[in-house]
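Changelog note: in this version the structure field was regenerated for every chain. One regenerated record is shown below for reference.
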Amino acid sequence: MNDDISLSSAAASASVSVLSSGPLARPSRAAVVLALALGLAPALALSSALAMAPLLALTAVAMLAANGWRRPVLVSTRAQAVLLLALLAWAAVTSRWSLDETFAGRNIAMLIGTVLGGVIVQAEARRLDEAGLALVVRALSLGLLVVVPAMLFCGILEQMHVLDTETTQKVIEAVVQRMNRGSTVCAMLLWVAALGQVRFGRPRRAVALVLVVLVGVVATHDLAAKLAIVGGVGVWAVARLTPRLAAAGLGVLMLTVVLLAPLAALHLPPPRDSIYISWLPRSGHHRMTIWSFTAQRIAEKPLLGWGLDSSRAIPGAKDEIFLIDRAGKLFSEAMLPLHPHNAALQIWLELGGIGAGLVALCLVTLPNSLARGTASRNAKAFGAALLFGGFLIASVSYGVWQSWWLSTVWLAVAGLGALSQAAKDARAPL
């Protein structure tokens, strides 16, 4: 009789233990904070992507408070931490000879704040239990799905000219153009949600989520986000089969692009020749003009660079070149509007070869950590897709120091890291 009671008590205790640690348990306050942040991120980014920076800061503070202000435990390797600190230190040094020293000083403070917030969110996210992770995945998946109809609706209105007054059509085009950053945020966070669905045994939902978000992104003007998703699927497939090969390939790709970008840009055809490349869109042609001009300025200060955030003040940046397109229409292009639209070239231009070397070393450690980590094969594959997509977007769009973009990267890395740490291959694979 006593043995029966003991067995019953043990079974009850085991049941309580499983429920308290499993998806049915009540999520922690920190999990609720992260779920709210990631769930709201797509809609916030679609309306105003600049909100991603304060969102990261608020999430970091709220998660610290939810965990009783405990000191976060760093999750990066010592080498990665040292390289990141060295890069921040060098960026601060170059701000002393920046062409816009005041703006550079403000920007280094924002950079440090963004990195600090990202490190905190990443560390706190790793403390979440199964219940918390399940809530985060549900919130993010729902947040991504909610914004797809808005992207589709505006895209269809623009393409079909349903509202055919000139003023209205310009407004619609401006709205769709404004969605570019939002579609970038969706393209980055998509891999976190997809891994989460696989993590909890729902691979079909992961496939559906990728397809639905891709359809929404296709309706926007953001070619980089579209390529990031499509290319990310290909990288995922390779990494799912051979994680080490995918990691090696990503490492070589990123190292080559960062180190050789200025040399490649110097050999681009002149704008008056490239305008006759039939498959090149106008935006792509302008990118080539910017990259060629940037490479010429890099050659003037190849080692130390022009200083942090000097892109907007580089001599000759505001000059315009006038061209005639294939239809005989005259148009103009600025040589360097705000930034080079290529992370590698911007780093070379502003931080010189020293900064580019530090960035290359930082990047080359990331695929290695993916391949050799303790995470499941699925987690490594989705991590590789996120890494490839982020690098592709950074190579053709946006300023590398923009807080909203860096905050998006940190939130995606935090979510992926939290889901990767305990993921097991016992779950049904895709």
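Spot check on this record: The first strand starts at residue 320 and ends at 324. The longest helix spans residues 166-199.
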